[in-house]
Amino acid sequence: MCGIVGYLGEGNSKEILLHGLKELEYRGYDSAGIAILEGDNFSSFKAVGKLVNLEEKTKDFQTKGFSVGIGHTRWATHGKPTELNAHPHLGESSYVVHNGIIENYAELKEELLAEGVNFLSQTDTEVIVHLFEKNLKAGLQPFKAFEKTVQTLDGAYAILLITKGEEETIFFAKNGSPMLVGITQDSNEKFFASSDTPLIGYATEVNYFEDGDYGYVNKEGIVIFNEEGVKKEPSFKTLSQNKLSAQKDGYRFFMEKEIYEQTNVISDTLLGRLHDEEVVFDELPSDLFDGINEIKLCACGTSYHSALSASYLFERYARVKTSVEVASELRYRDPILTTDTLFVAISQSGETADTLETLKMAKEAGLKTLVICNVDNSSMVRLADASILTRAGVEKGVASTKAFATQVTVFWMLSLYLSQKKQTLSNEELKRQICLLREVPAAVVVTDELHEKMKRLSKRYLHGHGFFFIGRDIFFPLALEGALKLKEISYLHAEGYPSGEMKHGPIALADPELFTIALLPEHMLYDKAKSNVEELSARDATICAISPLPFDKADDYIATKKQKDYMLEFFEMMVVVQLLSLEVSIRLGNDVDMPRNLAKSVTVE
Ligand code: M6R
Q1: Which CATH architecture has domain 245-445?
Q2: Residue 403 Cα: closest atom of ligand 1
Q3: What pTM value is reported for the model?
Protein backbone atom coordinates (compact mmCIF):
# COMPACT_ATOMS: atom_id res chain seq x y z
CA MET A 1 0.00 0.00 0.00
CA CYS A 2 1.92 3.04 -1.24
CA GLY A 3 5.48 3.38 0.02
CA ILE A 4 7.56 6.50 0.45
CA VAL A 5 11.31 7.07 0.45
CA GLY A 6 13.42 10.19 0.58
CA TYR A 7 17.12 11.03 0.59
CA LEU A 8 19.27 14.11 1.23
CA GLY A 9 23.06 13.99 0.89
CA GLU A 10 26.12 13.52 -1.28
CA GLY A 11 25.43 9.83 -2.00
CA ASN A 12 24.02 8.19 -5.11
CA SER A 13 20.42 9.40 -4.69
CA LYS A 14 19.03 7.32 -7.50
CA GLU A 15 20.41 4.05 -6.14
CA ILE A 16 19.38 4.86 -2.59
CA LEU A 17 15.83 5.72 -3.62
CA LEU A 18 15.44 2.69 -5.90
CA HIS A 19 16.85 0.42 -3.22
CA GLY A 20 14.35 1.86 -0.73
CA LEU A 21 11.44 1.34 -3.11
CA LYS A 22 12.55 -2.25 -3.69
CA GLU A 23 12.43 -2.86 0.05
CA LEU A 24 8.89 -1.48 0.11
CA GLU A 25 7.69 -3.65 -2.79
CA TYR A 26 6.07 -6.07 -0.34
CA ARG A 27 3.49 -3.39 0.53
CA GLY A 28 1.99 -3.79 -2.94
CA TYR A 29 2.01 -1.24 -5.76
CA ASP A 30 1.11 -0.74 -9.38
CA SER A 31 3.40 2.14 -10.42
CA ALA A 32 6.47 3.91 -9.07
CA GLY A 33 8.50 7.06 -9.49
CA ILE A 34 11.34 9.23 -8.21
CA ALA A 35 12.24 12.93 -8.44
CA ILE A 36 15.71 14.30 -7.67
CA LEU A 37 16.74 17.93 -7.28
CA GLU A 38 20.44 18.57 -7.88
CA GLY A 39 21.29 22.26 -7.69
CA ASP A 40 18.32 23.81 -9.44
CA ASN A 41 17.96 20.89 -11.80
CA PHE A 42 15.01 18.52 -11.43
CA SER A 43 15.04 14.99 -12.86
CA SER A 44 11.92 12.90 -12.57
CA PHE A 45 11.05 9.38 -13.74
CA LYS A 46 7.87 7.35 -13.47
CA ALA A 47 6.82 3.93 -14.67
CA VAL A 48 3.74 1.73 -14.48
CA GLY A 49 4.14 -1.84 -13.25
CA LYS A 50 7.11 -3.38 -11.51
CA LEU A 51 10.22 -1.49 -10.40
CA VAL A 52 12.32 -2.97 -13.21
CA ASN A 53 10.44 -0.62 -15.52
CA LEU A 54 11.55 2.36 -13.44
CA GLU A 55 15.09 1.00 -13.21
CA GLU A 56 15.17 0.74 -17.01
CA LYS A 57 14.02 4.34 -17.39
CA THR A 58 16.64 5.65 -14.97
CA LYS A 59 19.56 3.52 -16.17
CA ASP A 60 21.42 6.41 -17.81
CA PHE A 61 20.83 8.89 -15.00
CA GLN A 62 23.34 9.63 -12.20
CA THR A 63 23.75 12.42 -9.67
CA LYS A 64 27.22 13.91 -9.24
CA GLY A 65 27.15 15.69 -5.91
CA PHE A 66 24.72 16.82 -3.25
CA SER A 67 21.05 16.26 -4.04
CA VAL A 68 17.64 15.79 -2.49
CA GLY A 69 15.31 13.10 -3.77
CA ILE A 70 11.92 11.54 -3.12
CA GLY A 71 10.41 8.29 -4.34
CA HIS A 72 7.12 6.44 -4.20
CA THR A 73 5.42 3.15 -4.97
CA ARG A 74 1.73 3.76 -5.69
CA TRP A 75 -1.21 1.46 -5.01
CA ALA A 76 -4.02 3.13 -6.93
CA THR A 77 -6.88 4.67 -4.94
CA HIS A 78 -7.94 7.81 -6.84
CA GLY A 79 -7.42 7.23 -10.55
CA LYS A 80 -6.09 4.29 -12.53
CA PRO A 81 -2.51 3.01 -12.29
CA THR A 82 -1.11 5.18 -15.10
CA GLU A 83 2.13 7.12 -15.42
CA LEU A 84 0.30 10.42 -15.04
CA ASN A 85 -1.22 9.26 -11.79
CA ALA A 86 2.08 7.88 -10.48
CA HIS A 87 3.97 9.98 -7.93
CA PRO A 88 5.97 12.23 -7.60
CA HIS A 89 3.49 14.92 -8.68
CA LEU A 90 4.79 18.13 -10.13
CA GLY A 91 3.63 21.69 -9.66
CA GLU A 92 5.59 24.39 -11.46
CA SER A 93 8.81 23.97 -9.50
CA SER A 94 8.12 21.40 -6.77
CA TYR A 95 7.49 17.67 -6.48
CA VAL A 96 5.47 15.79 -3.88
CA VAL A 97 4.98 12.16 -2.86
CA HIS A 98 2.15 11.11 -0.57
CA ASN A 99 0.87 7.97 1.13
CA GLY A 100 -2.71 8.02 2.46
CA ILE A 101 -5.87 9.77 1.35
CA ILE A 102 -6.62 13.51 1.33
CA GLU A 103 -10.30 13.49 2.23
CA ASN A 104 -11.04 17.11 1.32
CA TYR A 105 -9.16 16.95 -1.98
CA ALA A 106 -12.31 17.41 -4.10
CA GLU A 107 -13.14 20.83 -2.55
CA LEU A 108 -9.51 21.90 -2.67
CA LYS A 109 -9.20 20.84 -6.28
CA GLU A 110 -12.36 22.71 -7.23
CA GLU A 111 -11.01 25.92 -5.68
CA LEU A 112 -7.64 25.52 -7.39
CA LEU A 113 -9.26 24.76 -10.74
CA ALA A 114 -11.40 27.90 -10.39
CA GLU A 115 -8.18 29.85 -9.86
CA GLY A 116 -6.80 28.51 -13.14
CA VAL A 117 -4.51 25.75 -11.83
CA ASN A 118 -3.93 22.97 -14.32
CA PHE A 119 -4.16 19.38 -13.00
CA LEU A 120 -2.41 16.54 -14.79
CA SER A 121 -3.56 13.58 -12.73
CA GLN A 122 -6.76 12.20 -11.19
CA THR A 123 -5.12 11.80 -7.80
CA ASP A 124 -5.95 13.40 -4.49
CA THR A 125 -2.21 13.99 -3.99
CA GLU A 126 -1.78 16.57 -6.71
CA VAL A 127 -3.70 19.19 -4.71
CA ILE A 128 -0.84 19.23 -2.18
CA VAL A 129 1.79 20.52 -4.55
CA HIS A 130 -0.54 23.11 -6.12
CA LEU A 131 -1.67 24.37 -2.73
CA PHE A 132 1.96 24.69 -1.67
CA GLU A 133 2.81 26.71 -4.77
CA LYS A 134 -0.27 28.86 -4.34
CA ASN A 135 0.96 29.72 -0.83
CA LEU A 136 4.43 30.46 -2.22
CA LYS A 137 2.96 32.79 -4.81
CA ALA A 138 1.05 34.56 -2.06
CA GLY A 139 4.47 35.55 -0.67
CA LEU A 140 5.04 32.97 2.06
CA GLN A 141 8.52 31.58 2.68
CA PRO A 142 8.75 27.91 1.54
CA PHE A 143 8.45 26.41 5.02
CA LYS A 144 5.52 28.66 5.94
CA ALA A 145 3.89 27.78 2.61
CA PHE A 146 4.32 24.11 3.42
CA GLU A 147 3.00 24.54 6.97
CA LYS A 148 -0.09 26.32 5.70
CA THR A 149 -0.63 23.57 3.13
CA VAL A 150 -0.49 20.85 5.75
CA GLN A 151 -2.93 22.77 7.95
CA THR A 152 -5.42 22.80 5.07
CA LEU A 153 -5.39 19.03 4.54
CA ASP A 154 -7.89 16.59 6.04
CA GLY A 155 -7.26 12.86 6.02
CA ALA A 156 -4.37 10.49 6.34
CA TYR A 157 -0.98 11.29 4.93
CA ALA A 158 2.75 10.87 4.93
CA ILE A 159 4.13 13.57 2.65
CA LEU A 160 7.55 14.50 1.30
CA LEU A 161 8.00 17.63 -0.81
CA ILE A 162 11.01 19.18 -2.54
CA THR A 163 11.11 22.54 -4.29
CA LYS A 164 13.42 24.80 -6.28
CA GLY A 165 14.51 27.75 -4.20
CA GLU A 166 15.11 25.40 -1.23
CA GLU A 167 17.41 22.97 -2.98
CA GLU A 168 18.91 21.58 0.21
CA THR A 169 15.69 20.82 2.02
CA ILE A 170 13.03 18.10 2.18
CA PHE A 171 9.72 19.08 3.75
CA PHE A 172 7.72 16.37 5.50
CA ALA A 173 4.38 15.84 7.24
CA LYS A 174 2.83 12.80 8.85
CA ASN A 175 -0.71 12.09 9.98
CA GLY A 176 -2.16 8.60 10.10
CA SER A 177 0.27 7.01 7.60
CA PRO A 178 3.62 5.68 8.80
CA MET A 179 6.93 7.50 8.16
CA LEU A 180 10.35 7.67 9.79
CA VAL A 181 13.60 9.53 9.21
CA GLY A 182 17.04 7.97 9.63
CA ILE A 183 20.51 9.40 10.17
CA THR A 184 24.08 8.23 10.66
CA GLN A 185 26.52 9.73 13.16
CA ASP A 186 29.25 10.43 10.63
CA SER A 187 27.47 12.16 7.76
CA ASN A 188 24.84 14.80 7.06
CA GLU A 189 22.69 12.36 5.13
CA LYS A 190 18.99 11.98 5.91
CA PHE A 191 16.86 9.02 4.86
CA PHE A 192 13.06 8.80 4.86
CA ALA A 193 10.90 5.71 4.50
CA SER A 194 7.50 4.26 5.32
CA SER A 195 9.07 1.44 7.35
CA ASP A 196 12.44 0.34 8.75
CA THR A 197 13.64 -2.00 6.01
CA PRO A 198 14.72 0.55 3.35
CA LEU A 199 16.95 2.23 5.91
CA ILE A 200 18.81 -0.91 7.04
CA GLY A 201 22.41 -0.60 5.89
CA TYR A 202 22.09 3.18 5.43
CA ALA A 203 20.92 4.75 8.68
CA THR A 204 21.94 3.74 12.16
CA GLU A 205 19.36 5.72 14.15
CA VAL A 206 15.75 6.50 13.34
CA ASN A 207 13.00 8.82 14.51
CA TYR A 208 9.40 7.61 14.04
CA PHE A 209 7.17 10.57 13.31
CA GLU A 210 3.99 10.92 15.31
CA ASP A 211 0.60 11.93 13.93
CA GLY A 212 0.53 15.69 13.39
CA ASP A 213 4.32 16.00 13.00
CA TYR A 214 5.62 18.17 10.17
CA GLY A 215 8.83 20.05 9.44
CA TYR A 216 11.93 19.87 7.29
CA VAL A 217 15.39 18.35 7.05
CA ASN A 218 18.52 19.91 5.59
CA LYS A 219 22.29 19.35 5.96
CA GLU A 220 22.23 20.93 9.40
CA GLY A 221 19.57 18.74 10.94
CA ILE A 222 15.92 17.88 11.44
CA VAL A 223 13.31 20.38 12.52
CA ILE A 224 10.01 18.94 13.75
CA PHE A 225 6.81 20.65 14.87
CA ASN A 226 3.87 18.89 16.48
CA GLU A 227 0.26 19.41 15.45
CA GLU A 228 -0.01 22.49 17.69
CA GLY A 229 2.91 24.02 15.83
CA VAL A 230 5.25 23.61 18.79
CA LYS A 231 8.85 22.71 17.98
CA LYS A 232 9.97 19.34 19.33
CA GLU A 233 13.18 17.32 19.45
CA PRO A 234 13.51 14.14 17.40
CA SER A 235 13.57 11.00 19.49
CA PHE A 236 16.15 8.67 17.96
CA LYS A 237 16.27 4.92 18.42
CA THR A 238 18.95 2.51 17.21
CA LEU A 239 17.94 0.79 13.98
CA SER A 240 18.50 -2.97 14.01
CA GLN A 241 20.75 -3.95 11.09
CA ASN A 242 19.68 -7.59 10.90
CA LYS A 243 18.53 -8.25 7.37
CA LEU A 244 19.03 -11.96 7.35
CA SER A 245 15.40 -12.79 7.86
CA ALA A 246 14.45 -10.45 5.05
CA GLN A 247 16.07 -12.63 2.42
CA LYS A 248 14.76 -15.76 0.74
CA ASP A 249 17.43 -18.22 1.91
CA GLY A 250 17.02 -20.44 -1.13
CA TYR A 251 13.26 -20.83 -0.96
CA ARG A 252 11.30 -20.09 -4.13
CA PHE A 253 9.14 -17.48 -2.45
CA PHE A 254 9.10 -15.55 0.79
CA MET A 255 5.77 -17.18 1.58
CA GLU A 256 7.37 -20.62 1.33
CA LYS A 257 10.25 -19.54 3.54
CA GLU A 258 7.81 -18.06 6.02
CA ILE A 259 5.80 -21.30 6.20
CA TYR A 260 9.01 -23.18 7.01
CA GLU A 261 10.05 -20.54 9.55
CA GLN A 262 6.94 -21.09 11.64
CA THR A 263 8.56 -23.68 13.87
CA ASN A 264 11.33 -21.20 14.84
CA VAL A 265 9.21 -18.11 15.18
CA ILE A 266 6.64 -19.90 17.34
CA SER A 267 9.52 -20.94 19.62
CA ASP A 268 10.43 -17.24 19.81
CA THR A 269 6.81 -16.36 20.61
CA LEU A 270 6.82 -18.82 23.51
CA LEU A 271 10.24 -17.78 24.79
CA GLY A 272 10.21 -16.59 28.41
CA ARG A 273 6.42 -16.67 28.52
CA LEU A 274 5.94 -20.29 29.58
CA HIS A 275 6.95 -21.25 33.10
CA ASP A 276 6.31 -24.74 34.48
CA GLU A 277 2.95 -23.95 35.98
CA GLU A 278 2.24 -20.50 34.73
CA VAL A 279 1.99 -18.32 31.62
CA VAL A 280 3.75 -14.98 32.05
CA PHE A 281 3.44 -11.77 30.06
CA ASP A 282 5.92 -9.34 31.66
CA GLU A 283 4.87 -6.66 29.20
CA LEU A 284 1.28 -6.53 30.49
CA PRO A 285 0.36 -4.19 33.35
CA SER A 286 -0.79 -6.40 36.23
CA ASP A 287 -4.10 -4.55 36.48
CA LEU A 288 -4.95 -4.78 32.76
CA PHE A 289 -7.82 -7.19 33.33
CA ASP A 290 -9.12 -5.59 36.54
CA GLY A 291 -12.75 -4.60 36.11
CA ILE A 292 -12.96 -6.33 32.72
CA ASN A 293 -16.07 -8.43 32.02
CA GLU A 294 -15.80 -8.70 28.27
CA ILE A 295 -13.18 -8.79 25.54
CA LYS A 296 -13.76 -7.25 22.13
CA LEU A 297 -11.31 -8.35 19.44
CA CYS A 298 -11.00 -6.34 16.27
CA ALA A 299 -8.95 -6.83 13.10
CA CYS A 300 -8.94 -7.32 9.32
CA GLY A 301 -8.20 -10.26 7.02
CA THR A 302 -6.00 -12.97 8.44
CA SER A 303 -5.69 -11.14 11.75
CA TYR A 304 -9.49 -11.25 11.95
CA HIS A 305 -9.33 -15.03 11.56
CA SER A 306 -6.84 -15.32 14.38
CA ALA A 307 -9.16 -13.14 16.48
CA LEU A 308 -12.04 -15.53 15.73
CA SER A 309 -9.83 -18.42 16.86
CA ALA A 310 -9.08 -16.49 20.04
CA SER A 311 -12.76 -16.15 20.84
CA TYR A 312 -13.07 -19.95 21.12
CA LEU A 313 -10.07 -20.13 23.45
CA PHE A 314 -11.01 -17.16 25.65
CA GLU A 315 -14.52 -18.45 26.23
CA ARG A 316 -13.50 -22.09 26.65
CA TYR A 317 -10.49 -21.65 28.94
CA ALA A 318 -10.96 -18.28 30.64
CA ARG A 319 -14.78 -18.18 30.58
CA VAL A 320 -14.75 -14.57 29.53
CA LYS A 321 -17.38 -13.20 27.16
CA THR A 322 -15.68 -12.44 23.85
CA SER A 323 -16.86 -10.76 20.68
CA VAL A 324 -15.01 -10.37 17.39
CA GLU A 325 -15.38 -7.50 14.94
CA VAL A 326 -14.24 -6.76 11.41
CA ALA A 327 -12.57 -3.35 11.80
CA SER A 328 -14.09 -1.74 8.70
CA GLU A 329 -17.57 -2.63 10.04
CA LEU A 330 -17.01 -1.58 13.63
CA ARG A 331 -15.85 1.86 12.56
CA TYR A 332 -19.14 3.00 11.14
CA ARG A 333 -21.83 1.09 12.97
CA ASP A 334 -22.05 3.23 16.09
CA PRO A 335 -21.15 0.36 18.45
CA ILE A 336 -21.83 0.21 22.17
CA LEU A 337 -18.43 0.40 23.83
CA THR A 338 -18.44 0.00 27.60
CA THR A 339 -15.52 0.54 29.91
CA ASP A 340 -15.73 -2.97 31.38
CA THR A 341 -14.61 -4.23 27.96
CA LEU A 342 -10.97 -4.77 27.05
CA PHE A 343 -10.49 -3.75 23.43
CA VAL A 344 -7.93 -5.92 21.61
CA ALA A 345 -6.66 -4.92 18.17
CA ILE A 346 -4.79 -7.55 16.19
CA SER A 347 -2.49 -6.65 13.33
CA GLN A 348 0.63 -8.04 11.74
CA SER A 349 1.77 -4.61 10.56
CA GLY A 350 0.29 -2.40 13.25
CA GLU A 351 -0.55 0.08 10.49
CA THR A 352 -3.81 -1.20 8.97
CA ALA A 353 -5.93 1.93 8.70
CA ASP A 354 -9.30 0.43 9.68
CA THR A 355 -7.92 -1.42 12.70
CA LEU A 356 -5.95 1.63 13.79
CA GLU A 357 -9.06 3.79 13.65
CA THR A 358 -11.06 1.33 15.78
CA LEU A 359 -8.27 1.43 18.32
CA LYS A 360 -8.56 5.22 18.42
CA MET A 361 -12.35 4.87 18.80
CA ALA A 362 -11.95 2.49 21.71
CA LYS A 363 -9.46 4.80 23.40
CA GLU A 364 -11.75 7.77 22.95
CA ALA A 365 -14.59 5.76 24.52
CA GLY A 366 -12.35 5.19 27.56
CA LEU A 367 -11.76 1.47 27.08
CA LYS A 368 -8.53 -0.22 28.10
CA THR A 369 -6.70 -1.27 24.96
CA LEU A 370 -4.31 -4.06 24.07
CA VAL A 371 -2.58 -4.66 20.74
CA ILE A 372 -1.32 -8.01 19.47
CA CYS A 373 1.17 -7.00 16.82
CA ASN A 374 4.26 -8.11 14.93
CA VAL A 375 5.90 -4.73 14.45
CA ASP A 376 7.39 -2.92 17.40
CA ASN A 377 7.03 0.86 17.30
CA SER A 378 4.18 0.56 14.79
CA SER A 379 1.33 3.06 15.09
CA MET A 380 -0.90 0.62 16.97
CA VAL A 381 1.79 -0.44 19.43
CA ARG A 382 2.52 3.20 20.18
CA LEU A 383 -1.15 4.01 20.68
CA ALA A 384 -2.40 1.13 22.81
CA ASP A 385 -2.25 0.95 26.61
CA ALA A 386 -0.46 -2.38 26.35
CA SER A 387 0.95 -4.58 23.64
CA ILE A 388 2.13 -8.12 23.07
CA LEU A 389 4.59 -8.61 20.23
CA THR A 390 4.13 -11.79 18.24
CA ARG A 391 7.85 -12.05 17.32
CA ALA A 392 7.24 -13.52 13.86
CA GLY A 393 10.05 -11.46 12.28
CA VAL A 394 9.64 -9.55 9.02
CA GLU A 395 6.81 -11.08 7.00
CA LYS A 396 7.31 -10.28 3.34
CA GLY A 397 4.78 -12.49 1.57
CA VAL A 398 1.56 -10.55 1.08
CA ALA A 399 -0.31 -13.70 2.10
CA SER A 400 0.17 -13.88 5.82
CA THR A 401 1.33 -17.19 7.30
CA LYS A 402 3.77 -16.97 10.19
CA ALA A 403 2.04 -13.87 11.52
CA PHE A 404 -1.20 -15.87 11.83
CA ALA A 405 0.62 -18.77 13.49
CA THR A 406 2.22 -16.53 16.10
CA GLN A 407 -1.00 -14.59 16.72
CA VAL A 408 -2.89 -17.81 17.52
CA THR A 409 0.01 -18.90 19.74
CA VAL A 410 -0.19 -15.61 21.64
CA PHE A 411 -3.95 -15.98 21.99
CA TRP A 412 -3.68 -19.51 23.31
CA MET A 413 -1.17 -18.29 25.92
CA LEU A 414 -3.30 -15.27 26.72
CA SER A 415 -6.39 -17.42 27.29
CA LEU A 416 -4.37 -19.41 29.86
CA TYR A 417 -2.96 -16.24 31.41
CA LEU A 418 -6.52 -15.05 31.87
CA SER A 419 -7.65 -18.41 33.17
CA GLN A 420 -4.95 -18.09 35.88
CA LYS A 421 -6.39 -14.73 36.93
CA LYS A 422 -9.95 -16.04 36.89
CA GLN A 423 -9.06 -19.50 38.19
CA THR A 424 -11.17 -21.19 35.57
CA LEU A 425 -8.82 -24.13 34.93
CA SER A 426 -7.49 -26.63 37.42
CA ASN A 427 -3.72 -26.56 38.07
CA GLU A 428 -3.47 -29.91 36.40
CA GLU A 429 -5.23 -28.72 33.25
CA LEU A 430 -3.17 -25.53 33.17
CA LYS A 431 0.03 -27.57 33.34
CA ARG A 432 -1.24 -29.85 30.58
CA GLN A 433 -2.01 -26.84 28.39
CA ILE A 434 1.47 -25.42 28.97
CA CYS A 435 3.02 -28.75 27.95
CA LEU A 436 0.88 -28.74 24.81
CA LEU A 437 2.01 -25.22 23.93
CA ARG A 438 5.62 -26.41 24.08
CA GLU A 439 4.77 -28.95 21.40
CA VAL A 440 3.49 -26.41 18.86
CA PRO A 441 6.91 -25.77 17.21
CA ALA A 442 7.19 -29.50 16.46
CA ALA A 443 3.63 -29.68 15.14
CA VAL A 444 4.33 -27.08 12.43
CA VAL A 445 7.57 -28.56 11.05
CA VAL A 446 7.23 -29.05 7.30
CA THR A 447 8.43 -32.56 6.45
CA ASP A 448 9.71 -33.43 2.96
CA GLU A 449 7.04 -36.10 2.78
CA LEU A 450 4.23 -33.63 3.44
CA HIS A 451 5.55 -30.99 1.09
CA GLU A 452 6.04 -33.55 -1.71
CA LYS A 453 2.50 -34.81 -1.18
CA MET A 454 1.11 -31.28 -1.42
CA LYS A 455 3.12 -30.65 -4.60
CA ARG A 456 1.67 -33.77 -6.22
CA LEU A 457 -1.84 -33.19 -4.97
CA SER A 458 -1.99 -29.57 -6.09
CA LYS A 459 -2.23 -30.53 -9.76
CA ARG A 460 -5.70 -31.99 -9.16
CA TYR A 461 -7.03 -28.68 -7.85
CA LEU A 462 -6.39 -26.17 -10.58
CA HIS A 463 -9.86 -26.08 -12.11
CA GLY A 464 -13.43 -26.63 -10.94
CA HIS A 465 -15.93 -24.02 -9.88
CA GLY A 466 -14.83 -23.44 -6.36
CA PHE A 467 -13.53 -24.63 -3.05
CA PHE A 468 -15.21 -24.99 0.31
CA PHE A 469 -12.93 -25.22 3.32
CA ILE A 470 -14.99 -26.61 6.16
CA GLY A 471 -14.41 -27.18 9.86
CA ARG A 472 -16.12 -27.05 13.23
CA ASP A 473 -15.35 -25.05 16.36
CA ILE A 474 -11.91 -23.40 16.13
CA PHE A 475 -11.39 -25.26 12.85
CA PHE A 476 -14.01 -22.95 11.32
CA PRO A 477 -11.71 -19.87 11.55
CA LEU A 478 -8.94 -22.11 10.23
CA ALA A 479 -11.23 -23.02 7.31
CA LEU A 480 -11.80 -19.29 6.69
CA GLU A 481 -8.06 -18.70 6.75
CA GLY A 482 -7.39 -21.66 4.42
CA ALA A 483 -9.92 -20.25 1.93
CA LEU A 484 -8.46 -16.73 2.18
CA LYS A 485 -4.94 -18.06 1.51
CA LEU A 486 -6.11 -19.94 -1.57
CA LYS A 487 -8.05 -17.04 -3.06
CA GLU A 488 -5.31 -14.50 -2.39
CA ILE A 489 -2.59 -16.29 -4.29
CA SER A 490 -4.36 -18.68 -6.68
CA TYR A 491 -7.24 -16.34 -7.68
CA LEU A 492 -9.57 -19.38 -7.43
CA HIS A 493 -12.89 -18.94 -5.70
CA ALA A 494 -12.81 -20.34 -2.18
CA GLU A 495 -15.04 -20.02 0.87
CA GLY A 496 -14.67 -21.05 4.46
CA TYR A 497 -17.76 -22.50 6.13
CA PRO A 498 -18.71 -24.13 9.41
CA SER A 499 -19.16 -27.80 8.45
CA GLY A 500 -22.62 -27.89 9.99
CA GLU A 501 -23.82 -24.97 7.87
CA MET A 502 -23.31 -26.63 4.49
CA LYS A 503 -26.72 -28.24 4.47
CA HIS A 504 -28.35 -24.84 5.03
CA GLY A 505 -27.64 -23.72 1.49
CA PRO A 506 -24.14 -24.20 0.08
CA ILE A 507 -24.66 -27.96 -0.39
CA ALA A 508 -26.81 -27.02 -3.40
CA LEU A 509 -23.51 -26.40 -5.21
CA ALA A 510 -22.26 -29.94 -4.63
CA ASP A 511 -21.01 -31.74 -7.74
CA PRO A 512 -17.67 -33.31 -8.75
CA GLU A 513 -16.29 -29.89 -9.69
CA LEU A 514 -16.89 -28.53 -6.19
CA PHE A 515 -13.80 -29.19 -4.10
CA THR A 516 -14.28 -29.58 -0.37
CA ILE A 517 -11.22 -29.29 1.85
CA ALA A 518 -12.48 -30.95 5.03
CA LEU A 519 -10.71 -30.36 8.34
CA LEU A 520 -11.37 -33.49 10.39
CA PRO A 521 -9.43 -33.36 13.65
CA GLU A 522 -9.64 -36.40 15.89
CA HIS A 523 -10.06 -34.36 19.07
CA MET A 524 -12.75 -31.86 18.11
CA LEU A 525 -16.23 -33.01 17.15
CA TYR A 526 -14.85 -35.68 14.80
CA ASP A 527 -18.08 -37.67 14.32
CA LYS A 528 -20.18 -34.57 13.74
CA ALA A 529 -17.76 -33.09 11.22
CA LYS A 530 -17.42 -36.46 9.50
CA SER A 531 -21.20 -36.77 8.96
CA ASN A 532 -21.20 -33.28 7.40
CA VAL A 533 -18.52 -34.40 4.95
CA GLU A 534 -20.42 -37.60 4.21
CA GLU A 535 -23.44 -35.50 3.26
CA LEU A 536 -21.30 -33.71 0.68
CA SER A 537 -19.69 -36.90 -0.55
CA ALA A 538 -23.14 -38.44 -1.08
CA ARG A 539 -23.86 -35.56 -3.44
CA ASP A 540 -20.73 -36.21 -5.46
CA ALA A 541 -18.64 -33.27 -4.23
CA THR A 542 -14.90 -33.96 -4.53
CA ILE A 543 -13.53 -34.35 -1.01
CA CYS A 544 -10.00 -33.76 0.18
CA ALA A 545 -9.91 -34.83 3.84
CA ILE A 546 -7.22 -33.59 6.21
CA SER A 547 -7.25 -35.84 9.23
CA PRO A 548 -5.20 -38.24 11.35
CA LEU A 549 -7.97 -40.81 10.84
CA PRO A 550 -8.38 -42.44 7.41
CA PHE A 551 -11.65 -41.49 5.76
CA ASP A 552 -12.96 -43.84 3.08
CA LYS A 553 -15.36 -41.32 1.54
CA ALA A 554 -12.51 -38.99 0.59
CA ASP A 555 -11.22 -38.64 -2.96
CA ASP A 556 -7.92 -37.38 -1.55
CA TYR A 557 -6.64 -37.92 1.94
CA ILE A 558 -3.87 -36.00 3.69
CA ALA A 559 -2.84 -37.88 6.81
CA THR A 560 -1.85 -35.66 9.71
CA LYS A 561 -0.05 -37.03 12.79
CA LYS A 562 -1.88 -38.47 15.76
CA GLN A 563 -1.79 -35.62 18.26
CA LYS A 564 -2.72 -35.35 21.94
CA ASP A 565 -4.99 -32.36 21.57
CA TYR A 566 -7.10 -30.51 19.03
CA MET A 567 -4.89 -27.38 19.22
CA LEU A 568 -1.87 -29.34 18.00
CA GLU A 569 -4.08 -30.67 15.20
CA PHE A 570 -5.07 -27.06 14.47
CA PHE A 571 -1.46 -25.98 13.97
CA GLU A 572 -0.57 -29.01 11.86
CA MET A 573 -3.62 -28.52 9.62
CA MET A 574 -2.76 -24.83 9.31
CA VAL A 575 0.52 -25.81 7.64
CA VAL A 576 -1.30 -28.20 5.30
CA VAL A 577 -3.73 -25.55 4.03
CA GLN A 578 -0.89 -23.02 3.63
CA LEU A 579 1.14 -25.49 1.54
CA LEU A 580 -1.89 -26.39 -0.56
CA SER A 581 -2.42 -22.72 -1.52
CA LEU A 582 1.29 -22.22 -2.16
CA GLU A 583 1.59 -25.20 -4.50
CA VAL A 584 -1.64 -24.46 -6.38
CA SER A 585 -0.49 -20.89 -6.90
CA ILE A 586 2.97 -21.96 -8.10
CA ARG A 587 1.42 -24.42 -10.58
CA LEU A 588 -0.79 -21.64 -11.91
CA GLY A 589 2.31 -19.50 -12.47
CA ASN A 590 1.19 -16.70 -10.16
CA ASP A 591 3.37 -14.24 -8.29
CA VAL A 592 3.01 -15.90 -4.88
CA ASP A 593 4.61 -13.09 -2.85
CA MET A 594 2.94 -10.20 -4.59
CA PRO A 595 -0.48 -11.35 -5.74
CA ARG A 596 -2.45 -9.07 -8.03
CA ASN A 597 -4.52 -6.25 -6.50
CA LEU A 598 -3.23 -6.87 -2.98
CA ALA A 599 -1.03 -4.85 -0.68
CA LYS A 600 0.88 -6.09 2.37
CA SER A 601 -0.02 -3.17 4.53
CA VAL A 602 -3.43 -1.61 3.94
CA THR A 603 -2.94 1.92 5.21
CA VAL A 604 -6.04 3.37 3.55
CA GLU A 605 -9.60 2.49 4.51
O1 M6R B 1 -1.25 -6.05 9.07
P2 M6R B 1 -2.62 -6.56 9.41
O3 M6R B 1 -2.58 -7.86 10.12
O4 M6R B 1 -3.45 -5.57 10.14
O5 M6R B 1 -3.31 -6.82 8.00
C6 M6R B 1 -4.64 -7.20 7.92
C7 M6R B 1 -4.97 -7.75 6.55
O8 M6R B 1 -4.82 -6.77 5.58
C9 M6R B 1 -4.08 -8.95 6.20
O10 M6R B 1 -4.19 -9.97 7.14
C11 M6R B 1 -4.48 -9.51 4.82
O12 M6R B 1 -5.74 -10.10 4.89
C13 M6R B 1 -3.43 -10.49 4.33
N14 M6R B 1 -3.25 -10.35 2.93
C15 M6R B 1 -3.79 -11.90 4.61
O16 M6R B 1 -2.97 -12.84 4.00
Answers
A1: 3-Layer(aba) Sandwich (3.40)
A2: 3
A3: 0.74
